[in-house]
Amino acid sequence: MKTSLISIICALMICTASGSASCAQGQVQNNGAIAPITSQYDRLDHLIEQEMAMQNIPGYAIAVIRDGRVIYSRGYGYADLATRRPVNNQTVFGLASLTKTFTALVLLKLVDAGKIDLDAQLGTYMPRIQEPYKSVTIRQLASMTAGVPASVPHEIAWPAQIATLQKLPLVAQPGASYLYSNFSYRLLGTVIQNVTGRPYLQNVRSAILKPLGMSTTGTTAIFWDSGNVATAYGDNMGNGTIRQVDYKDPAISFSAGMLATTIDDLGRYGVGLLQGNMLSRQGYQTLWRQRPPLANGAPSNWAFGWACTNPAWPAFANKTMVAMNGGTAGVASTMMLFPDQNCGLVALCNLRKPQTYAIAKKAAHLLFGAQDQSG
Length: 375
Hints:
The structure is a single chain. By secondary structure, this protein is an alpha+beta fold. It has one domain: Beta-lactamase (3-Layer(aba) Sandwich), CATH 3.40.710. 32% of the residues lie in helices and 17% in strands. A hairpin with a 4-residue loop joins strand 4 (69-80) and strand 5 (85-86). The longest helix is centred in the first third of the chain and has 17 residues, at 39-55.
C-alpha cells in the first residue's frame, strides 16, 4: 500500500479520550496533547459545514477510518433545533436500512456455524409460510432477488404483517430481477429468530454489539429517555419547510430498519467489519465480493446489505468500495468502506433528502478519491 504524508500523520494521531478512537470537536490527540487537525480535515469540516448551511440540514456526524482505526470523528449542527442541543459523538441517530447490514452479518454468522443454508427454501425455517414465499431461497431474500413486493396496503407491526404479505403474489420470478423490498429482510429477521430461538435484537447484541463494544446501539425507543436521541426532521425531500417528524416504529421496521446508534458506535462497526474477523473467509466473500448475475445474465451489484462497486469507480482510483445508505423520515445514514485499503467513512443525519447523502459522497471523494493515494 502506498503511504502518503497524510496517512503517516493520521496514523500517529490516535485518539485516547474516553477509551475510544473518536476525536471530539474536530481535534485529534497525540499522547494526551491537543493538536491542530490536518489541512485535509479542515477541508472536510468546511465541506460539511458549507453543505449543511446550503441545504438547511440540522445535524450531522461523521467518522473517518484509516488503517483500521477511527482517526477523525465529529458532530456538526444541532440534534434538536428548538433547544439548540448540539450533535456530539454520543448523539443517537436512526439507521433505517443500514440495519440490513447487521441482519446480513448475523445471518452469515449462522451460515458459518452451519445453522442456515443460503440455498435452502424459506419454508425450511418458516414452516407456516405459504407459497409462493415458501419456495424462495434465503440467498434470494438476502440479495433482493426473491420477487417480494416492495409495499403492502397498510404497514403494521411485524410479525403480524406476515399474514398480509403472504396473501400478495410475488412481483417477479425468483432470481429473475433485483427488486428492493424491506419485507425480504423482515422475513430474514424471522428466520434468524426461528433458528436461534432468541429475539432479533438479542442476536444482534450477542453477535455484533458486544464483541465490538457497541454499547450505544439499539433503537430510538430504547434510548429515548436518555436525552441523547436526535430529533427527526423532514422538509419534503428539500421541497418544503423543515419540520419535526416522528421516527418510524421499530416494531414495523424490524430487521430491515429498526436500529439506531451513535457515530462512535458506527465507527466501531466499520472498524470491526474491516478487520476481517467477523466472518469466515468465505463469509466475507459472500458479504462483499460475490455478486452472481441474475437469471437473465444481467449484473446484480447488491447483496447481503451492501452494494459493491466492482469494477470500482475510477473516481476512487480503482479501489473496490462497498456501500449502503439508510433512509426514512428523519433518518439518513451512510457507510462507504474500501476493504482492500482498510479505510472508509460512516455518517449520520437527522434529515433525509438526496443532498444529505451527497455530503458523504463528496467527503469520500476528498478523503479517498483518485487524488489521494494513501489508501
